[in-house]
Design brief:
This protein is α/β, with parallel strands linked by helices. It has 22 helices and 25 strands. Strand 5 and strand 6 form a beta hairpin. It starts with 9 loop residues before the first strand and ends in a 9-residue tail after the last strand.
């Protein structure tokens, strides 16, 4: 019997919430254990709240974690005996994964329950019954292969996530090798975790592999994992990405690190429409329909936010039919054997709908975080695949694969004359008013002075605010209106050190390869978006020369919605082990940033340091 252990950091409660004491010697290992099967909900100073959900447990089960291992971790770190219902709930949820299987036998697509009672429960369920083509026994059903994705989605909603063992078509063959020396003349080999991720996903080409999500930090080489999966599949591949800049980065990486040639790799974006054996496309083009403006304009890319609606926003009255999306024909334009979803957490609803129809194709999702602000993680699980591989960010940091980062939240007050205006501003406009606080500009100038020898990105949500900053700093500004050619020119100048600072709108959130950027200043964000916070930190996580430290600053207006949303935004990174030091504006002049970590102890630049942790 587990007795009271006051030295432990966890309190596991019967409502599936788990409280974790931050100021506890065992905090770090308990947090790392929890992150594998629970979701962080709140992270104030002293006690963090996690939630154990069916989906978090099913992702853990799909990644190979057993109920016994989960319960052992909870027992190990819990102050009190585990509530009995928690033990039962965890065993039940983990046990449900794989109780229903999809198989293909003699050309027929079968749904097989592991016992007749479960079969009867499914047969009587109003969502499952209409999808049944025929009932072959008490526990075996035949379905239309075209309904494979829809059946998996329904089974997840019922609470019995299916293990899909029905296999995949091979797709058109495409033979190529990975280079040992890149076109740029650099030695190339997969890092151990990249090779492991591709191996776990591929599962030796068996039906047990071939669909799933690989979760790796920004800067850890998710693109290389995708290329490794392509190499294992050796087939025609369709790659979906957030924007045209990302399309071209994929093309550069593929040509640099494989023996594929330019005539085998095509760009399908708002600017070009080349279908080749490897085709890289933007989500924007796929989701263009006749009621939208032309997608050739890069502004449409800048405003692409599929899973982060405005608070209290109303859904559109009618979802367009798939036939209204002319570019969706790309999914059938070639015999694809593999589809890669880059930044899968951004997947828009129309692409989910098509993905439900193409379950015979192998599917790989790549992301830094499975968090979706619209709650559609279940659709990623059922239609793209469960989480197959995940590495804690701090593990890769310790191994030197991503940079060590210090995170700071700087709290700035509203001017006296603005406080009353904020108080009377309507709720829908309060966040914008607070996030665009003019006093943030002075903090940006102070930070730039402290980082005058660094490569700095300033990023935000509101264009007028960014225009003021760019003008004040004399720095280039990149927004959705900036042509792709101009963006790429500025990014290249930044990489070559010709410019040392860039101001970016949210087009800078994703798939920008600026390895020398070591400071990011966030002046405003998308409400409480956890995945955006993770992506933005990721802009500065590529390993630095000589172990240089990365810095992430988020400037928020204190005692406003801006501060509340900042707390929500930080949840995912807190779960990954990042700690935000709090600075108030009056402390910034005396603050001296650390230069680099030596034996995990940050070295400060020059005197006057305010070391807050």
């Amino acid at each position: 019997m587990h007795s009271y252990k006051p030295e432990n950091p966890l309190i596991v409660q019967s409502d599936r919430s788990v409280l974790l004491e931050v100021d506890n010697p065992h905090y770090t290992e308990a947090r790392d254990a929890l992150a594998r099967f629970a979701e962080l909900e709140k992270s104030p100073e002293y006690v963090h709240t996690y939630r154990i959900s069916p989906l978090s447990l099913w992702n853990a089960a799909a990644a190979g974690l057993s109920a016994d291992a989960i319960l052992a971790d909870l027992e190990k770190y819990s102050k009190y005996p585990l509530p009995e219902n928690i033990k039962v709930d965890i065993r039940d949820a983990v046990g449900r994964y794989g109780r229903v299987r999809l198989t293909l036998e003699d050309g027929r697509m079968l749904v097989i329950a592991d016992d007749p009672v479960l079969g009867e429960e499914l047969a009587r369920h109003r969502s499952f019954a209409p999808l049944v083509k025929g009932r072959l026994s008490q526990a075996i059903f035949e379905i239309d292969p075209a309904q494979r994705g829809h059946v998996k989605r329904v089974l997840l909603q019922i609470g019995y996530p299916a293990e899909d063992l029905a296999g995949y078509v091979d797709g058109a063959p495409l033979h190529f090798d990975l280079r040992q020396i890149t076109l740029a003349g650099q030695p190339f080999a997969l890092r151990h975790y990249q090779a492991d991720a591709a191996e776990v996903y591929w599962a030796q080409g068996s039906a047990a592999g071939g669909s799933g999500v690989v979760v790796l930090p920004c800067g850890a080489g998710k693109t290389i994992v995708g290329i490794a999966a392509m190499h294992k599949a050796q087939c025609a591949t369709l790659i979906l990405t957030p924007n045209t800049v990302a399309v071209r980065q994929w093309i550069r990486e593929i040509l640099d690190k494989t023996t594929l040639t330019e005539d085998q790799v095509g760009e399908y974006s708002g600017l070009k429409k080349d279908v080749r054996p490897v085709t890289i496309c933007t989500y924007q083009v796929l989701t263009y329909h006749h009621r939208k403006r032309e997608v050739g304009s890069e502004k449409s890319e800048a405003t692409f936010t599929p899973d982060s609606p405005l608070p209290n926003s109303k859904p559109s009255k009618r979802l367009p039919k798939i036939s209204e999306y002319p570019h969706m024909a790309l999914f059938n334009s070639m015999d694809w054997g593999l589809i890669i979803y880059d930044e899968v957490h951004l997947l828009p609803a129309p692409v989910f709908r098509v993905t439900a129809e193409i379950q015979a194709r192998r599917r790989l999702g790549l992301t830094a975080t499975l968090v979706r602000e619209d709650g559609m993680e279940g659709d990623v699980f059922s239609l793209v695949g469960p989480k197959k591989y995940d590495v804690p960010w701090k593990d890769l940091e310790r191994q030197g694969w991503i940079a060590t980062a210090e995170c700071h939240e700087i709290r700035v007050a509203l001017a006296d004359e603005d406080r009353m205006e904020y108080a009377v501003t309507g709720h829908d406009q309060k966040y914008h008013f607070a996030a665009a606080n003019p006093r943030k500009l002075q903090i940006v100038s102070m930070l730039m002075a402290k980082h005058k020898d660094d490569d700095v990105l300033i990023i935000g949500q509101y264009i007028p605010q960014l225009e003021q900053i760019a003008q004040r700093l004399g720095a280039p500004l990149i927004t959705g209106e900036t042509p792709v050619r101009q963006r790429e020119k500025l990014f290249q100048q930044f990489r070559e050190g010709q410019i040392r600072r860039l101001v970016l709108s949210k087009v800078g959130n994703f798939s920008i390869d600026l390895p020398d950027a070591n400071v990011l200043i966030q002046v405003s964000g998308m409400f409480g978006s956890r995945q955006e916070e993770a992506q933005r930190l990721g802009r500065v996580l590529r390993p630095k020369q000589n172990g240089l430290l990365a810095h992430f600053y988020t400037i928020v207006t204190r005692d406003t919605l801006d501060q509340e949303y900042a707390a929500k935004r930080q949840l995912f990174l807190t779960e990954q082990g990042y700690h935000y030091d709090i600075l108030y504006e009056e402390e910034v002049p005396g603050f001296t940033p650390a230069l680099m970590a030596v034996n995990a102890a940050p070295v400060r630049r020059t005197g006057g340091a305010l070391d807050r942790g």
